[in-house]
Amino acid sequence: MLDVEKVRKDFPILGRTAGEYPLVYLDSANTSQKPQVVIDAIAEHYGQHNANVARAMHMLGAEATEAFEGARSGLAQFIGAERSEEVVFTKNASEALNLAANTLGASLKPGDEVVISVMEHHSNIVPWQLVCERTGATLRWFDITDEGRLDLEGAEREHLINERTKIVSLTSVSNVLGTHNPITDIARQAHEVGAAMVVDASQSVPHRVTDVSTLGADMVCFTGHKMCGPTGIGVLWGRHDLLEKLPPFLGGGEMIEVVEMARSTFAPPPYRFEAGTPPIAQAVGLGAAVDYLSGIGMAAIAQHEETMTAYALDKLTSIDGLVILGPTEAVDRGSAISFNLADVHPHDVMQVLDSRGIAIRGGHHCARPLHRRLGHQSSTRASSYLYTTTSEIDALADALVFTRNYFAPRFNQG
Amino acid sequence: MNIDELYQTIILDHYREKHHTGLREPYDVQVHHVNPSCGDELTLRVSLAGDVIKDVSYEGEGCSISQASTSVMTDLVIGETVRHSMGLYDDFLEMMQSKGEITPDEDRFEDAIAFAGVSKFPARVKCALLSWSALRDAVGQASDKES
Ligand SMILES: Cc1ncc(COP(=O)(O)O)c(C=O)c1O
């Protein structure tokens, strides 16, 4: 069991107030807060060990390189990767997904198919649209059921995954609906037809145990800032034998073997995919973040979040006029809960909650097609993490009732 | 921050009961403007008669600020000249960018004075401006067509 009061003391920002209200941070699906150990690790790196990596040969260069590569092996261990060369550092999940689309997609031809789903974040839609446009391949997608889960039966009926499918790229957990997707099953279907399986794990790696050795995926992308790490760093994990065969993504320093004026040869993975000076201090910070998360235990974090999600779903579904997008039971479900309040636009919900120190997100959360599919223009999202308490969820529920009544006076009568 | 400063009664009244809603015929130009960060969308039609704005009709989805601002804008410009309306646009824009520094002239701005409070909430300024930008775009295109 996780001691949430003890955990909260690790996050200096959670001590802030907004006027008379304590800060209630329920926007962790957007970005998480940072524990002091991560802030310290970054400061310590810049304060004591700063230098460029690999190319700087002096004492500090060696220290910085060791710290950077140490972070790589820490991340490899955290996600169950066989070797640290399978971990490529990128700028964020979006860049990792673009890397996947541009390298795996380089050999696509007209007639080939790429499969995504309607519940993807724009970061797992647009890169595939671009590569399909460029290569003439066809983009197809999974629909969802009314409950907000992947429509597996519909996909089967339509032969969505078939002998033309070359790549399947799916989110492991929806950033809007919270839905957990059956990645391992779908990866098996993809592999049966010879397609590669890419997973956008931005909303799962921060929240539960990840083991790429049993997941079944060929590539897994996630972002540092949602898992207690700094901004400016993301990760692409790829099977080593696959990465070895792929062309580079961006060109530049450190990704080469030999450069001639007319052509170059390229470094082995992961360096082939890390052009230019990488996010060094950010890698160190992310390394500290995964140490911190492991110290608490991903299983304990997952369990805490499940408790918070069940508590929040219970509270929110009992508010008259509130509709939840996605599963209303805390089963196979992450901690992001999106909803709409009758007659109140998400931006207005966000504003009133903000005036009471409650940070949530209003809008389409970079998932416009999903909102269209659900018939909602946008939504409000509350998302918890390891530091969320039931009293914060109580504050959320109270503020939502206040907001509803503020805009729709009919709820005040009787 | 006091939200009553943002959500003035005038704004909530317009939000609950919008004026001049619905897309009407005839029209000279139709434009579609969006606010990509929040997803607010507005389809707006303008009908000119010479240099007078004969009608502005619209359909949109958005927050109270953007909806109320559209409603107030139509009250202010329907039946007015293009020149007067574009002058109002300029002054409204200046007020919205003033962070609460400019106190608007009530005779000229009527219900739009309520948006002076919105200018203190930088994240919401673009909500208030959505319909005005759409109007300027549509009127510009319609004037080009006429000439
Ligand atoms: C499911 C999902 N994929 C991708 C991203 C993109 O992450 P980033 O903005 O860090 O690239 C996010 C976060 O916004 C997300 O929730």
UniProtKB/TrEMBL annotation, chain B:
GO terms for biological process: iron-sulfur cluster assembly. PANTHER family: IRON-SULFUR CLUSTER ASSEMBLY ENZYME NIFU HOMOLOG. GO terms for molecular function: iron ion binding; iron-sulfur cluster binding. Belongs to the NifU family. NCBIfam families: SUF_scaf_2. The lineage of its organism: Bacteria, Bacillati, Actinomycetota, Actinomycetes, Propionibacteriales. Residues 7-127 form the NIF system FeS cluster assembly NifU N-terminal domain. SUPFAM superfamilies: SufE/NifU. It comes from Tessaracoccus antarcticus. This is SUF system NifU family Fe-S cluster assembly protein.
